[in-house]
């Protein structure tokens, strides 16, 4: 707080200090004066301003060399005084300005003095404070022609410091001081508003400095990026504010052709500039060169704030200098549109905001100059686009495409002027086709197969309504940057939105038909054109533009859809397997010996699309991508049309379902276009979509099955429908299933794979749709440990075994099941019994002996299982594997209808045994799974057969493989032999329990599994072996206990009485026994 508030008190204190400084100019005296000034109030300082400044100015003007530290102290003290007072006299302002500027100038060398950075910074801050201290109109009187030399000297000095100094602090201070001199600072107290006459006066004065300011700032802006983004931003701001003020159209229109005689001496008058037309033209041309350099450099500056400042530069110059800088409009617009797709969201948002302003008819479209510039630039760019796309790197392509995108946004509907030129349309389409060429050399495209058939089971809420299914990642020949592809899509969408859609679609459809080499690229472009025409993801900068009508869009989509799904474009060769159209499981297991020799040969089908011999990997990859792109296009079309797409479902849904069942991974993934159709057509889910359109789908399947050679993909449609529907579909497809079975009987030797896949989907659906077998499964689990004699009574519903009739029926049932178990019953026994016992009552007989008709699903499962019995011995391993899976599902579906299941199981048993004992290891694994299922559903039937035909082979295999696995390393767990051992060990225990094996058979199982309790075996095999003994404990715990103790005896058994002999078990008591750990674990769990 000030101590001296009145001028008198302050003068009394300051007078001796000022006198002392006048006598002796030292740093100490200056510091003493500044210390005393701290205690003086601002009002007192204002009264004593000139008195205090006198010794300080005197020190600066004293001739002779002076120490830099003294000059710095004086300048800092002057700055302190000026920061607390106002300069009210014009003469004082001019003199102080000159004196401070001279501190940085060397008269002898006529160059800026080589002084310390501290002094430079102090002088710059002093000049800035002085200009801010100028009071009222005094500041305007400073900007008169007579002061032009002083002002020009200071401007030149500050520009030199900003350009040449290494210190960022000095650079920034010099630029800020320059802003103050040019009335561009952001200080509230600095005058900013002038009337027209004052603006003209300042404009004429600043025009003299324009060449120097513009040139020096351009060098700073285009200098090294390492100088810092703040310096570049300040330089850009000064540049465009100075240029937009001096070259403002509003000012130049008021400049007379005849220059008024300035009130200044002759030499000063020669420095003044008259801003007449010729000067404007010459200056504008020179500024265009500088602006082009600036925009080219700054548009790729690494810092986003610098690029953001460039947008302000473009906006200011185009809005204020549209007439004076006509030649600069091209580079400025080019810079603006190149930032339209900047990586920074802030830059994008600001650029879009400015573009919206320019898109106003009064600003751009209504101005002939701007419209012509945009059209010329677009013409030029379209002409050179093929060359640029071919020669540039990815970053260059991003810049070029961003430029093209910006021109399209600015021109809007006027883009048709360019598209109507055949030459330019051809150049544009050639560039797009060329750059969009896909890389189809990767063998993974054709070799990756679909493993999960339920890939379309997604909830309808997965993508939000109106959103797109993500586009598959694709690889292009000429670029790798994803931004290039994104820009290409946006360009095509804008062309579809603003351009003549009929013209564009016709042009690219011609290219689509012209050559296979163009087909994929043309399809990608057509997809985006339709999406753009519907306004999907397109930002409309032209409110008056009218979108394509829904009727026109539907007509265009219909024509494209017909071309996509035509025979020659939809059914393409995508693999080289023997049955190309089949659903085959690609089993790739090294070291297998039993793979069929014909699994990788190529056979032509009767379809014309497959008649081309010897397809290459590249051609198949190309075909796969073409189908994927066309499928994605159908999804785009659905989004574009919305609910109107329902009118096209009859022609679109069936082909899409065909591809959804394709075994090629990429194609089956692309068929997620069905989810796009669901959301676009307002279906709740894929199931809802299929159910609502199942009538004509089933009709199409039925018709095409009659001409299977012409429609080999028909089974896939039914397969996908079954995988993605519910039980309500069954009544509709029941007849079609019979058609499928009849067709399978006819073409079993050619197309078995396709039909077996359908049957697998059918049985999997039946097992899912009718889960009533769950209760029976729980019941069977409760019966697993029971004795054989108890089962027939439990299986007879309503049978009372306490009466004579019940006991008689019990014995009959037992004998019957015993005959079935021993194989002494034929497939026709049931029919003969029915014929030998005719019903006593012919009509209205509702007696217990009349069986109700079988449910549809049971009849279907019965028919399918009959086919599986024949196909289980097919020579093709893949078919055998699939058939075993179908057989497993048949058993699950038929488990509650033993009268149908048991005879079929009896017929299937010989072939199943062959699969278990004399087939490829993969088939053995799958057959063992079927055996486990059979054991759980009809255990009594299997008991003697299993013990006689299968058990010896399984135990023998386990015994023979045990030494191998005990010596094997960690890699052994990845071999097929290990997987077989593990599967058998894991399945034997439940089988023994479910089949209720006798003591002799249980001993065989135990003997075979004992060796796997050794610690030398792999850990997983030890765990599986323990699970076997856990199940054996439930069947015969005493024998199991004795067997384990014979292997390792953890304790000695002492007789309870001396008269009894001690019990001696053969099991070792040594803890080094390899069986110790597992035996102890088992004994602890023994009940």
Automatic annotation (TrEMBL):
Location(s), subcellular: Cytoplasm
Name the source's superkingdom.
Answer: Eukaryota
What GO cellular component entries does it have? cytoplasm
Database matches in InterPro entries: ARM-like, ARM-type_fold, TELO2-interacting_protein_1, TPR_TTI1_C, TPR_TTI1_N, Tti1, TTI1_rpt
Per UniProt, the ranges with Acidic residues bias are 828-845
Briefly state the protein's biological role: Regulator of the DNA damage response (DDR). Part of the TTT complex that is required to stabilize protein levels of the phosphatidylinositol 3-kinase-related protein kinase (PIKK) family proteins. The TTT complex is involved in the cellular resistance to DNA damage stresses, like ionizing radiation (IR), ultraviolet (UV) and mitomycin C (MMC). Together with the TTT complex and HSP90 may participate in the proper folding of newly synthesized PIKKs.
The name this protein carries in UniProt is TELO2-interacting protein 1 homolog
